[in-house]
């Protein structure tokens, strides 16, 4: 039978979220119900609340989660009741042109649950990134569940979005390897994850760039060898500072974890000739970039965007959880605080003031 649980819903643009009753249907073919154990408070959820993703209100927020499978629908074979899973928002189809050419991390037709979760009056909810896990239970497509070794949900659940996006931007998209120099612009959760990924790959030097000294301190703990406080520097000043730390050349890989025209230009000019720029920060639709085409041609290299860290959840999640359990990847340092579900609105405020890497709701 359908289940009624508590969940966090954004009902109108810019208005505080509400903790309210939502209805979880029984899973249909290819669907799974998950008992949510944790959910990170991500900027994307705030963007949904503010209308920055779409205006298809009401939204059931939350997507950065781990939990236990409690029900499975017809035809589900990859996970079973009782499995500990991390939720992901790119369940690959296996049939699109990207999947068929052997690049499933670019899947162009990812899928979600077919049924909708609803309010108690029957109003359909749009689940954030097809997950909607600021709730005691959620309904997802089976492919959105990746079974991993059971661990602290509040920690490993962050692989469901921001931490995976950052680590993957370095290792998968930027192809950072031992001895490469890396600069990361913006040291929030995603940027510091990119630093952790670069450190894991053996990069050196690893340069962290941010306005906020506290975020730079966190970056040092996660593997940055140098920091640049950008609050008193213009675009050229940031570029010069990176070049000074890399023998005058610029970094081999520069990762823009902010996603603004000015930070992308910094990344472009702060890389070495034939170096790589990775954009993982998400720009808003109104942003435009102006750049001399001759500079694009003359500097060579690669200009790449990173979708979810170009990850393949079934490949990457188990490996990263294992590295965490071995003490080689300090995922726990991304958890700034553990909160109740009724504290999400307060957590949005802390996030926007730059006071946390991640607030994590625990159920």
Automatic annotation (TrEMBL):
InterPro entries, per the entry: ADH-like_C, ADH-like_N, ADH_Zn_CS, ER, GroES-like_sf, MycoS_dep_FDH, NAD(P)-bd_dom_sf
Domain Enoyl reductase (ER): 14-361
Required cofactor(s): Zn(2+)
Keyword set, alphabetical order: Metal-binding, NAD, Oxidoreductase, Zinc
Any matching Pfam family: ADH_zinc_N
Family note: Belongs to the zinc-containing alcohol dehydrogenase family.
Protein name according to UniProt: S-(Hydroxymethyl)mycothiol dehydrogenase
Organism whose genome encodes this protein: Brevibacterium daeguense
């Amino acid at each position: 039978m359908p289940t009624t649980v508590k969940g966090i819903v954004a009902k109108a643009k810019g208005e505080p979220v509400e903790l309210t009753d939502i209805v979880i249907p029984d899973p249909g073919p290819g669907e799974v119900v998950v008992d949510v154990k944790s959910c990170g408070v991500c900027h994307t959820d705030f963007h949904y609340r503010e209308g920055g993703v779409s205006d298809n209100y009401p939204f059931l927020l939350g997507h950065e989660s781990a939990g236990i499978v409690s029900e499975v629908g017809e035809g589900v074979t990859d996970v079973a009741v009782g499995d500990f899973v991390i939720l992901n928002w790119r369940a690959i189809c296996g049939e699109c042109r990207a999947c068929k050419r052997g690049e499933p991390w670019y899947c162009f037709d990812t899928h979600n649950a077919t049924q909708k979760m609803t309010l108690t009056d029957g109003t359909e909810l749009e689940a954030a990134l097809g997950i909607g896990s600021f709730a005691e239970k959620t309904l997802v497509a089976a492919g959105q569940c990746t079974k991993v070794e059971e661990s602290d949900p509040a920690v490993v659940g962050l692989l469901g979005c921001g931490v995976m996006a950052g680590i993957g931007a370095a290792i998968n998209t930027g192809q950072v390897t031992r001895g490469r120099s890396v600069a990361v612009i913006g040291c929030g959760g995603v940027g510091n994850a990119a630093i952790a990924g670069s450190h894991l790959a053996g990069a050196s030097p690893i340069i962290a760039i941010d306005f906020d000294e506290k975020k730079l301190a966190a970056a040092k703990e996660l593997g940055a060898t140098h920091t640049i406080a950008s609050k008193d520097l213009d675009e050229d000043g940031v570029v010069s500072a990176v070049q000074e730390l890399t023998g005058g050349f610029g970094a081999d890989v520069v990762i823009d974890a902010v996603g603004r025209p000015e930070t992308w230009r910094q990344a472009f000019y702060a890389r070495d000739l034939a170096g790589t720029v990775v954009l993982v920060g998400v720009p808003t639709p109104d942003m435009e970039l102006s750049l001399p085409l001759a500079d694009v041609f003359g500097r060579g290299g690669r200009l790449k965007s990173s979708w979810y860290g170009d990850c393949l959840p079934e490949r990457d999640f188990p490996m990263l959880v294992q590295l965490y359990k071995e003490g080689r990847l300090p995922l726990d340092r991304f958890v700034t605080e553990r909160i109740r579900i009724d504290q999400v609105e307060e957590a949005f405020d802390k996030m926007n003031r730059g006071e946390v890497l991640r607030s994590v709701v625990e159920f």
